[in-house]
Design a protein that fits this description.
heterotrimer, A alpha+beta, B mainly alpha, C mainly alpha, A: alpha+beta, Rossmann fold, 2 domains, six-stranded antiparallel sheet, 9 helices, C: mainly alpha
């Protein structure tokens, strides 16, 4: 089922009565989530991604705009009638109930024609439990489970009523690094298997990029960019998106465009046809550097980190807006470990320039 | 699992829910819901708490107010005559004296004893649970019923002879220790003896709660403080004065404040020991308290009762404020 | 050199020996103190029981017996036959009032605590603050007017008058609200998504999770009915509605001062028995409730 958000807006009244300032948590969010896709809402804390998720679930009422599940306007429908599944960051398992009772709980709440027989409910509960591989743990209490197992129970509970939409709020943030990788794949597998339209919220760009069909990058309640993970990474629309995606993060310099050339400091580093003369901010992906003795961009080396397949050169430059510049070079390249300086030429499609004031992307012809 | 959702099968019900919640949203039901949940409590509080507050102030300010006369159409003048009458009334002074005396005697004694017992209980392992249970036992009792037991322990049974048939178990113990027996509470007993009886009973009654609170406080004190003190070679007395009492000060303040409040409301323990006469036979009301005074005026002299109740409230309020002020200065967090 | 070392070692040993002695003496004193106090605390109960088993003649002996010469249950029979006391009726009255007021009070307390802990509405904090403030006012201040009110309602000498005025306890609402606040809000949200109504969530999640507190409240409320004296004495002092504590005091108020103490003690023991049973089986819950309250009954 596709989920359509039309001009979705959420305004919180100000906590401070004197200033009377309202907080716009989500501002005019319009977006259609295609049927059966896994969409990641991504952004730093306070960007409105959780609020958006809660509005889709019905736990929070939008101040403006509409939400459709398929053709069905659910904006006024409270959470309990919306038929969504939600997995909370801390799982929110009922501590006094066993795993089985937790998973049965949503089914027991079905009323009227949806009401199920006890046998049917049990069958469904075991089906859901098998899907997340916890059918062995059905009689345990949540306190007797590990974090990863609790997470699976929470997913099973959300899935058991066959929700129209599955929502995941920071589902991996309470797991340790190894489990996170594993669970990530698991979520992907379950989503592919059930084909339930799924929205998940995260502040971890790597997590979002790795499993989403689509990502939505948000900042201060405003959607910055929507697209397939690779597209957004390769083509950020503004400095914020460019900075937010990618590890190691993008290297940012101050620069200037003069006569169709991009200058960092005094050296012209790249041809940028189609951009008017102005002061700019330059973003260069770590993999956008090419070792080149005659390259136009020269930096002072402060360290070399060997990472096996690749080598990361840590350096500084007076025009860099980050404390250090990090470039990733194939380890086959011949690097002089004793050198104090390194010179680069740049891969044009890994270099993004942004207006210094508006921080919007300025496109040039490659 | 099929992707077909359960909810869409139930179109009618679903549309109904949707309309209902749109309506709820329109009338801002969320704002109302809380008040609906609270409505039983609010109705009862309005009748039995809020109205009495206003009415008590009103009655206390109407000269010589009684309900009976009001029903008969009498009109009362505004004034502070009720308060004057209460204070001028010699019986009220007795009540005030008894209340203050019993409070001032019992709160420090019971707090000190409770602190001592709690600290001792906290320092032992063997029998600790059994002793804790025993010390908590008086809490779960009926203060009237056990008051009657205390009366039996202090009372003499007068026979035909000069010496009573039985002097009571307390006097038996006194005699065994070489003292003379004392007329604690029979006819002709002296005021101080009565007060001693009441003090013993009230302290006995007050101990379990205080021990429980203080022991709870002691057990929650981080053991590391004591280990640190041990490493530093601090003496026991110093540990008590410099670590235990300061860390326990919020709990001590709490039991002292509740003790004062309870003390000023003393009534039923005296009824338990001395009966509704509130004094030894032949000397009724010699041990009357402020609450006793108020209770006897209920249904008869409401104006006076209200004035007395407000005076009691004022005293409790002031004493609590003083207590809080002092404990804020003395407590270490 | 080595001699000094030996000396020092011996000194050290002496010091630790001394410390050990002090420690043992302190322990002994601690135990003597605790056992003495325990004896004093428990003595009235002991005295009540043995006195209730003595004949009046034995009780009157000038040198008291610490254990009855022969156990005499006649006092207890006499208590049950006492026309002034009607113990069975008093038990039933008190049980009825206790049960009804506990159930109703729990319903009101749970609903109110839920509203204060989980629902958002205008005026919530102001109302809660006001309720807390009323806790400072001594109950006697309310009693004067409440007496008039229940009289006007025509409730005198009914069970209603013993139940209704005390159904709302701000303290219990406060206690339960604190308990509810500790339950993570996500559980409420999860339950909403899972399709529950507020009331079902209360029943299925919040009540099971705060059961220990609810049990504490139940016990304290029942004990309150058992021990209440002043209000029942004022408004329902008739045979049909009299509660146990009032009945006990009234039956044994005797101007001459020479009541039959063994019978009286038997009555007191019978009245105390249910409380002891509660104490034995439910001590944990009472202590938990009390340590947060400081309210007796």
């Amino acid at each position: 089922m596709k989920v359509e958000l039309q001009n979705l807006t959420k305004i919180f009244p100000s906590r401070n009565k004197k200033s009377g300032e309202e907080v716009i948590a989500v501002n005019n969010f319009t977006f259609t989530i295609p049927d059966g896709q896994l969409v990641g809402l991504l952004g730093p804390s306070g960007c409105g991604k959780s609020t958006t998720l809660y509005m889709i679930s019905g736990l929070q009422q939008p101040s403006g705009g509409k939400i459709f599940f398929g053709e069905d306007d659910v904006t006024d429908l409270p959470a309990e009638s919306r038929g969504v599944g939600l997995v909370f960051q801390n799982y929110a398992l009922y501590p006094h109930m066993t795993v089985k009772q937790n998973i049965l709980f949503p089914l027991q709440n079905l009323k009227g024609p949806d009401k199920m027989t006890k046998e049917a409910m049990l069958e469904r509960a075991y089906e859901a439990a098998k899907l997340v591989q916890i059918d062995e743990l059905m009689d345990r209490k949540p306190s007797e489970l590990s974090g990863g197992q609790q997470q699976r129970v929470a997913i099973a509970r959300a899935l058991v009523k066959m929700p129209r939409v599955l929502l995941l709020d920071e589902p991996l943030s309470n797991l340790d690094a190894r489990l996170r990788l594993q669970t990530r794949e698991e979520i992907r597998r379950i989503q592919r298997g059930t084909k339930i339209t799924t929205v998940f919220v995260t502040h971890d760009q790597e997590e979002a990029m790795s499993i989403s069909d689509m990502i939505v990058v948000m900042k201060l309640g405003v959607v910055q960019q929507v697209g397939k993970p690779q597209e957004v990474y390769d083509n950020p629309v503004n400095l914020f998106v460019a900075k937010f995606l990618g590890t190691p993060p993008i290297n940012v310099f101050e620069g200037e465009v003069k006569g169709g050339k991009l200058y960092i400091g005094q050296s012209a580093v790249l041809d940028t046809p189609g951009v008017d003369d102005r002061a700019v901010t330059v973003g260069i992906r770590p993999e956008g550097f090419i070792l080149d003795e005659n390259g136009p961009l020269t930096c002072n080396i402060s360290g070399i980190e060997v990472m096996g397949r690749d080598v990361s050169i840590v350096s500084t430059n007076e025009h860099s807006l980050n404390p250090v510049i990090r470039s990733i070079i194939n380890s086959d390249a011949n690097i002089n470990a004793a050198a104090t300086e390194v010179s680069y030429s740049l891969k044009p499609h890994k270099v993004f320039i942004f207006d210094k004031e508006t921080e919007e992307r300025l496109y040039f012809e490659v | 699992m099929a992707n077909e959702s359960v909810a869409t099968k139930t179109y009618f019900w679903y549309e109904f829910r949707k309309k209902l919640s749109a309506f709820a949203k329109k009338i801002k039901f969320d704002q109302w819901k809380g008040w609906i949940y609270l409505s039983p409590a609010i109705v009862l509080i309005l009748i039995f708490t809020v109205w009495p507050i206003f009415n008590t102030v009103r009655m206390s300010l109407l000269e010589g107010y009684t309900t009976m006369k009001e029903v008969n159409g009498a009109v009362f003048n505004f004034g502070i005559g009720n308060f004057k009458r209460v204070i001028d009334y010699p019986g009220f002074l007795t009540c005030l004296k008894n209340t203050v005396l019993l409070t001032v005697l019992t709160v420090p004694i019971s707090t000190f004893l409770a602190l001592l017992i709690a600290v001792c209980l906290n320092s032992i392992k063997l029998f600790s649970r059994a002793l804790q249970t025993i010390f908590f036992l008086p809490y779960v009792t009926n203060s009237i019923a056990i008051g009657m037991v205390f009366a039996a322990m202090f009372k003499m049974i007068i026979g035909g002879q000069a010496r009573p048939d039985s002097v009571g178990i307390v006097n038996n113990v006194l005699e065994a220790l070489g003292f003379d027996y004392i007329n604690w509470m029979n006819a002709g007993s002296e005021y101080w003896a009565n007060i001693v009886v009441m003090t013993v009973y009230i302290v006995w009654n007050a101990l379990p709660f205080k021990i429980l609170i203080l022991l709870g406080g002691l057990q929650s004190v981080n053991k590391q403080y004591y280990d640190a003190a041990k490493v530093d070679g601090t003496s026991r007395a110093r540990v008590f004065g410099r670590i235990t009492v300061p860390l326990l000060s919020p709990m001590i303040a709490y039991v002292v404040i509740t003790g004062f409040i309870g003390g000023f409301k003393e009534y039923s323990s005296i009824v338990g020991v001395f009966g509704e006469g509130m004094g030894p036979v032949g000397n009724a009301y010699s041990l009357d308290t402020m609450v006793g005074f108020i209770y006897r005026a209920i249904g008869k002299q409401e104006g006076t009762a209200s004035a007395a109740a407000l005076i009691l409230f004022a005293i409790i309020f002031v004493v609590t404020m003083i207590n809080l002020y002092v404990s804020n200065k003395k407590t270490h967090y | 050199m080595s001699e000094i070392k030996v000396m020092k070692q011996r000194d050290m040993q002496q010091v630790t020996a001394q410390q050990r002695v002090i420690k043992i003496v302190a322990k002994v004193i601690t135990y003597i103190f605790l056992f003495t106090m325990a004896l004093i605390v428990i003595f009235p109960f002991y005295w009540m029981i043995i006195s209730s088993l003595k004949t009046l003649d034995e009780y009157r002996l000038s040198i008291p017996t610490l254990f009855p010469k022969f156990i005499d249950a006649r006092n207890y029979i006499e208590v049950f036959q006492n026309k002034d006391l009607l113990l069975g009726k008093l038990f039933m009255n008190t049980l009825y009032v206790g049960l009804v007021s506990t159930i109703l009070s729990l319903v009101i307390t749970v609903l109110s605590a839920f509203a204060f802990a989980r629902l958002e509405f205008k005026g919530r904090n102001a109302l809660f603050g006001f309720l807390l403030a009323t806790m400072m006012i001594p109950g006697e201040l309310f009693t004067i007017t409440n007496y008039q009110t229940v009289n006007a309602f025509g409730w005198m000498e009914t069970f209603t008058v013993l139940i209704v005025p005390f159904l709302v306890s701000v303290f219990y609402i406060y206690l339960l609200r604190q308990n509810f606040l500790q339950i993570p809000n996500e559980l409420y949200l999860a339950a909403k998504v899972d399709g529950t109504t507020d009331l079902k969530y209360l029943w299925k999640v919040m009540i099971p999770l705060s059961l220990p507190n609810l049990i504490s409240i139940t016990i304290l409320k029942m004990m309150g009915a058992w021990n209440s004296y002043m209000w029942p004495r004022l408004v329902a002092n008739d045979d049909a509605h009299r509660l146990i504590t009032n009945g006990l005091r009234t039956a044994f108020t005797d101007a001459s001062g020479n009541t039959d103490i063994p019978v009286q003690m038997a009555a007191v023991a019978l009245v105390s028995l249910p409380l002891f049973l509660v104490f034995v089986f439910l001590r944990k819950y009472i202590m938990k409730g009390v340590s947060r309250s400081g309210i007796k009954g």
